[in-house]
Design brief:
Blueprint (H helix, E strand, L loop, with lengths): L11 H4 L1 H19 L5 H28 L9 H30 L6 H30 L27 E2 L5 E3 L12 E3 L2 E8 L2 E2 L2 E2 L2 E7 L4 E9 L2 E8 L3 E13 L2 E8 L2 E8 L2 E9 L5 E9 L2 E6 L2 E7 L6 E11 L1 E9 L3
Antiparallel strand pairs: 1-2, 2-18, 3-8, 4-7, 5-6, 7-18, 8-17, 9-14, 9-18, 10-11, 10-17, 11-12, 12-13, 14-15, 15-16
Helix pairs in contact: 2-3, 2-5, 3-4, 4-5
The protein binds protoporphyrin IX containing FE.
Length: 353
């Protein structure tokens, strides 16, 4: 592999111009070939270019998959990435298959049937519409939201303590979603649903991070068995930002989302040196993705639930990326199971669409 320039986020932006350029040129030769039917060169050139274009689209697809896992996105770009990724899959299937068909029909001599040739040319042009739409989404991510651009800061939301100290539970945001910066040990309980045994909750010193004091944070200590805590505010898509510390806890900590009840929800769990993503259906757990992960110390977490795409980040780096059936609308919260105390600095949830 050739070395990437230090400023480039990944190889995808360098590759994507090839399928776009090659496939448009292929279609042009195809149309010219239909007009100049006696000339053999346009017909051969179109076949060669479609074959090359299929290879280039395959490269764009695989580098795109890797790119999606390497970038940290501003909130507004989450839905665009989901759509661009889905479209990128269709481009890969379409032009991968189309290239094979073109090579076969060329060598089998079927292209000499004018009607078939014309129909295939039209199909190729239709595929360019899909390609354009895909590239448009990719370019919008970069040029509107600065995805992968070093000068743009896509960092997680910084949540300040509510100015009104009577606001002790999560506060609904004007733009949708909610934020929770705990300031009291127990008064928040009446604003949230607690399913299971929460032995205690207390405010305590959050210590320091990068030399700066974190201030007071909430300590949650579950009793026997798992406890699920959520705010009743159903959302279909969500970006969850939170800062947690699990140093005094031995067990599993889940971000639960698209939660219908304590048995049916999607989750991102930190447990046994792993981060896992999945879904609980009537208590049966299905894992979509799992990666090694060390949760010691304070970390900023981000979980994105966007229809069939689920991404989870720690400190702005993607850890798990799962796919599954579209998640239904549901609530968001935490589920704790184990011994000790989990420290929660804040949680903020915003819709991604
Ligand atoms: C297969 C056809 C694909 C095409 C033609 C395509 C095209 C593009 C284009 C034109 C851009 C803007 C690049 C620029 O401004 O220089 C882009 C960016 C991007 N695309 Fe794709 N894409 C494809 C597949 C995918 C897939 C399957 C994914 C993810 C699963 C993906 C993820 C991304 C990401 C994350 C960016 C932002 C820039 C970066 O970090 O690379 N792409 N794409």
């Amino acid at each position: 592999m050739f070395p990437l320039p230090e400023w480039a986020p990944n190889v995808h932006p360098l590759i994507v111009h090839f399928p776009i350029g090659i496939l448009f040129t292929a279609a042009l030769f195809d149309l010219v070939g239909l007009v100049l039917r006696q000339q053999d060169f346009p017909r051969r050139a179109a076949m060669m270019l479609y074959a090359l274009g299929g290879i280039a689209a395959t490269a764009a697809y695989f580098t795109g998959e890797a790119a999606a896992d390497s970038v940290f996105l501003p909130t507004e770009a989450n839905a665009l990435l989901t759509e661009h990724s889905d479209l990128g899959h269709y481009v890969f299937y379409f032009f991968g298959g189309y290239a094979v068909v073109r090579v076969i029909t060329f060598f089998a001599g079927l292209e000499r049937m004018f009607l078939l040739r014309a129909a295939m040319a039209v199909l190729g042009v239709a595929g360019l519409g899909l390609l354009t739409y895909t590239a448009d989404h990719g370019a919008e991510m970069v040029f509107r939201y600065g995805v992968g651009v070093q000068a743009v800061d896509a960092g997680p939301a910084v949540v300040a303590a509510p100015s009104d100290s009577s606001q002790v539970g999560p506060q609904v945001l004007d733009a949708g979603g909610w934020m929770w910066k705990p300031t009291r040990a127990a008064a928040w309980r009446q604003h949230m649903v607690i399913d299971g045994n929460l032995a205690s909750s207390s405010m305590r010193d959050g210590g320091e991070q990068d030399g700066a004091p974190r201030g007071d944070v909430l300590g949650l200590t579950p009793g026997a068995g798992p406890v699920t805590i959520w705010f009743e505010h159903p959302m279909e898509t969500a970006q969850i930002d939170a800062a947690l510390n699990l140093d005094s806890f031995d067990g599993s900590v889940m971000f639960v989302h698209n939660l219908i009840d304590a048995q049916n929800y999607h989750f991102t769990v930190l447990t046994d040196g792993e981060m896992r993503q999945g879904v609980s259906e009537n208590r049966d757990l299905y894992v979509m993705d799992a990666k090694p992960y060390d949760a010691s110390d304070w970390h900023s977490y981000r979980v994105v639930s966007d229809r069939t795409h689920f991404r989870a980040y720690a400190d702005e780096a993607l850890v798990t990326h799962g796919h599954g059936d579209a998640a239904p609308s549901g609530h968001i919260g935490l589920r704790l199971s184990g011994e000790g105390t989990v420290l929660v600095d804040f949680m903020q949830v915003v819709p991604v669409r």
